[in-house]
């Protein structure tokens, strides 16, 4: 009896090809890491320029330099994120090649095992009389049987080892996919950052245009920009998923939420303002198309049922190309997060059940989550970190790639605090 076994030979050839691929990916990864490190160094340099300029007295030159530094930092941050995504994608691609090779070897091992099992069964089915009458020497027959048993044991051990390696590689691939998902989610920050950068570019050009590059003219412009309490009272504060409401009413909701949670009203408004500007076509999505099922669809149907609302008529954020939508109301809570806060929102507002599309309930929800994130400490660092946790959770909040969101929320909070101070001074 002759057994043909080609698994190791074929896999060896496959492994040689994979090794060449691994070396190429390793080299590419090293280059990407080098590029990323260089960009991060440039970002740090721009931030130092920004910090230095912000300490100077207000002037045309100073404000233009600040805008330039912000624009440069934003562009570098977007470039850095793209490199990180690219690096992770390359790693996943290599893992897929390895898994493919391991799967091929497992298939070969299975086929070899199947052949051996069939042959062994054939041997086991021999009667003693058939062995005696056969032309084969009995000692050779039992020798072959021992050989088969040995090969079977070896193949089974090999199969188990490969299966274990395949499971490990798939686990590594899953981990990398999670990282890519994390980085891909950052694209929504990039879109916001890109929009903000375009606005800053326009602001820079507008400043130069209306001041004609003269410091004296710029100082005059600054004075006309100071808002009175009356002007602030008439400002409209647009909330996503709801009708536009006066700033003073939004501030009333924020003050109430602040009293319940200890989070500054300006920070609460900063979050709501930031969330209301995230993504495109916000509020035009539907739960059937844009939500992640069943994570968010199931609680969404429960929320709308409790409120007596038609789920097909309630606006949610539209699914962007990089992930899921389905966020609800001014605070843009996803349903699976909202249900975790429902009881506390109801207790704080007296609305039972609370409504994520109702501005007061939404602002209270934001304040509760921000307090849980540590914003009630009232330091810049704590409030900024809480904002990052609001977006990315506690695990990713300290990563450099998310910094823009925290910085932008704090800029908005500073804007609203100045307006609140003017209102309180009258």
Question: Would you give an account of this structure?
Answer:
Strands 1-2 form a two-stranded antiparallel ribbon. It contains 15 helices and 2 strands. The protein is 75% helix and 1% strand. The protein folds into 2 domains: 7-191, Helix Hairpins (Orthogonal Bundle), CATH 1.10.287; 227-424, Lysozyme, CATH 1.10.530.10. The protein is elongated. A hairpin with a 7-residue loop joins β1 (236-237) and β2 (245-246). It is mostly helical.
Set down the secondary structure blueprint.
Blueprint: H1 7-54, H2 60-124, H3 128-133, H4 138-185, H5 187-211, H6 215-225, H7 229-233, E1 236-237, E2 245-246, H8 247-261, H9 265-276, H10 287-290, H11 297-307, H12 335-349, H13 359-372, H14 380-396, H15 403-424
Antiparallel strand pairs: 1-2
Helix pairs in contact: 1-2, 2-4, 2-5, 8-9, 8-13, 9-13, 9-15, 12-13, 13-14, 14-15
Tell me briefly what this model is:
This protein is mainly alpha-helical. The protein has two domains: 7-191, Helix Hairpins (Orthogonal Bundle); 227-424, Lysozyme.
């Amino acid at each position: 009896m002759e057994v043909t076994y080609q698994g190791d030979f074929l896999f060896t050839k496959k492994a040689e090809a994979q090794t060449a691929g691994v070396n190429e990916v390793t080299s590419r990864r090293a280059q990407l890491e080098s590029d990323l490190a260089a960009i991060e160094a440039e970002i740090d340099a721009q931030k130092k320029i920004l910090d230095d300029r912000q300490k100077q007295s207000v002037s045309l030159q100073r404000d233009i330099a600040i805008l330039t530094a912000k624009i440069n930092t934003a562009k570098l941050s977007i470039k850095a994120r793209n490199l990180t995504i690219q690096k992770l994608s390359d790693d996943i691609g290599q893992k897929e090649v390895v898994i493919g090779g391991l799967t091929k070897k497992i298939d070969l091992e299975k086929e070899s095992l199947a052949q051996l099992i069939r042959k062994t069964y054939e041997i086991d089915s021999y009667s003693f009389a058939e062995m005696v009458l056969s032309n084969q020497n009995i000692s050779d027959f039992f020798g072959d049987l021992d050989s088969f048993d040995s090969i079977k044991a070896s193949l089974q051990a090999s199969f188990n080892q490969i299966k274990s390696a395949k499971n490990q590689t798939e686990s590594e691939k899953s981990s990398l996919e999670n990282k890519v998902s994390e980085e891909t989610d950052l694209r929504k920050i990039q879109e916001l950052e890109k929009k903000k950068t375009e606005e800053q570019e326009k602001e820079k050009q507008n400043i130069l245009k209306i001041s004609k590059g003269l410091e004296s003219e710029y100082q005059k412009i600054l004075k006309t920009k100071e808002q009175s309490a009356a002007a602030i009272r008439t400002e409209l504060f647009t909330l996503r998923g709801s009708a536009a409401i006066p700033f003073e009413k939004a501030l009333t909701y924020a003050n109430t939420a602040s009293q319940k949670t200890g989070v500054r009203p300006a920070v609460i408004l900063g979050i709501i303002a930031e969330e209301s500007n995230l993504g495109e076509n916000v509020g035009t999505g539907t739960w059937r198309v844009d939500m992640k099922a069943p994570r968010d669809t199931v609680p969404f149907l429960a929320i709308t049922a409790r409120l007596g609302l038609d789920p097909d008529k309630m606006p949610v954020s539209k699914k962007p190309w990089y992930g899921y939508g389905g966020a609800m109301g001014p605070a843009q809570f996803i349903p699976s997060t909202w249900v975790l806060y429902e009881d506390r929102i109801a207790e704080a507002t007296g609305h039972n059940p609370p409504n994520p599309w109702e501005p007061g309930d939404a602002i209270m929800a934001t304040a509760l989550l921000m307090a849980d994130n540590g914003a009630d400490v009232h330091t810049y660092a704590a409030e900024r970190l809480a904002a990052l946790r609001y977006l990315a959770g506690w695990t990713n909040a300290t990563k450099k790639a998310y910094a823009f969101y925290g910085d932008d929320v704090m800029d908005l909070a500073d804007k609203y605090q100045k307006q609140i101070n003017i209102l309180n001074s009258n």
